[in-house]
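Dig into what follows:

_____
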Amino acid sequence: MRRSHGGLDRQLIVPKGQNEAKSCWTSKWPVKEATIEFVSAGPVEYAREEPTKFRTQFVQRVDGILAKGPSSFSLVEKPSLRVFFVDHIGTMIKPDKKRTISFTVKDIGVTVSPQEMTIGPDDNPQAALLTPVSPGMASIQIATDGLRHGATDFSTDVTIGWVVLTVLFGGLTGAGLSYLQMREKPALKFGGGAVGGFVLASAYVLGAVPMMPALPLNSISAAASSVVGGWVGTGVLDWMWS
């Protein structure tokens, strides 16, 4: 057999008493037009029947999905989680058709937005947004239908990072600004400011943002909320309680 591309997984040998042999013709790379042609057979030359030459096309088959995202991130970050389609050797390729990818949180620590996305052959790479909910390990199952390796798990660690120092600094800053205006007892003012800053920043990061993912989440937004809490002081507790 003469081939223009690829190879056969075994030699074509017709067992005694049978009238056919099978072999698998494969290619490691996409080929727009590949040909294979019958040349000769031995030890006896068999009568040739048309056609003796065959044409086909090798396409890059979508075999599975690959998830890429941070191994860890802090409570004041909203990183991206990207999903790519890969072939049988792990090379990233475009999908062969429109495919829907779903995200399911297994170990709660983050939320994913959107929970489903559809990607087609002509679409640009898309990303899901991870929003922290609580510190600790989070696990997400990513799946799509119709692929041999169409499901994978992605794990990430949500850390506290510099959140505590950021919130403490913001709370004390807010308390200091309030003290300069009202001139109350400094110990009570700064102590209440630290508490108020921590409570309001925690409510923003762990409460408001997960419920409304469109809200900004970074060190600046965490610090800003803690400054406001530091200014209000323990009045934040009354507001939260009510």
